[in-house]
Specification:
Order of helices and strands: EHEHHHEHEHHHEH
Shape: globular
Number of strands: 5
Strand order of the largest sheet: 2-3-1-4-5
Strand content: 5-15%
Largest sheet: 5 strands, parallel
Radius of gyration: 16 Å
Bound molecules: BIS(adenosine)-5'-pentaphosphate, magnesium ion
Helix content: 55-70%
Structural class: alpha/beta
């Protein structure tokens, strides 16, 4: 099963992707985590991605798609994947669809978490990751609006999009997500 956790920075994609992955018994893949790990390990991808991640800009599509394709070749993902933070552009969506078509897989559903910007900013400032400063959060939010939000229409047109209210406790939100996944079958 391939499920995409979609939404702006700080809506809870990572938190909910992990819970859903545990519930479904499949693995979770976060491109943000993959880039942070590559940056820590000073790999070729890490050296390339650092400047973008530090500033809250998108890492170029070709690099991002390659990271996902290489990761998904791992047997960890043979039963499926909960994708968190990918795709984020039209090109990435196309790359994912091509990648999946090669192995006869399809996207099961796209869960769009909705949270208002002022709550997002509060959550991220409280977390305090290196890219959680007010300036970089604002940049991430505007990159999301310009480059990523247009994919909502793309997934809606494909009949894959489900909107979930991301406000409430973590359990409130995970219960909503699980019901949506179960009712989709
Ligand atoms: P990434 O790591 O994906 O960051 P993001 O999209 O900005 O999202 P976050 O991880 O900040 O938030 P989240 O939605 O996962 O929420 P979380 O569960 O952590 O990407 C980082 C960077 O990598 C990008 O800026 C870019 O440079 C690069 N990158 C990544 N993917 C890319 C791609 N596809 N293409 C190009 N570049 C890419 O929750 C946030 C906080 O809120 C946590 O502290 C959490 O505990 C808390 N929280 C969660 N749920 C609740 C709740 N219900 N109530 C209260 N608090 C909550
Ligand atoms: Mg995350």
């Amino acid at each position: 099963m391939i499920v995409i956790l979609f939404g702006a920075p700080g809506v809870g994609k990572g938190t909910q992707a992990q819970i859903l992955a545990d519930n479904l018994g499949i693995a979770h893949l976060s491109t943000g985590d993959a880039f942070r790990e590559a940056i820590r390990g000073k790999t070729e991808v890490g050296l390339l991605a650092k400047h973008y991640v530090d500033g809250g800009h998108l890492v170029p599509d070709d690099v991002t798609a390659r990271v996902v394709e290489e990761a998904m070749a791992n047997p960890t993902y043979s039963k499926g994947v909960i994708l968190d933070g990918f795709p984020r552009t039209q090109n990435q969506a196309q790359a994912l669809e091509t990648m999946l078509a090669k192995s006869g897989k399809v996207i099961h559903m796209v869960i769009n978490l909705d949270v208002e910007n002022d709550i997002i900013v509060q959550r991220l400032l409280a977390r305090g990751r290196a890219d959680d400063t007010e300036e970089i959060i604002n940049n991430r939010l505007s990159v999301y609006q310009q480059e990523t939000a247009p994919l909502i229409k793309h997934f809606m047109d494909l009949g894959l999009l489900v909107h979930i209210n991301g406000i409430g406790t973590i359990t409130d939100v995970s219960d909503r997500i699980l019901s949506a996944v179960i009712s989709k079958g």
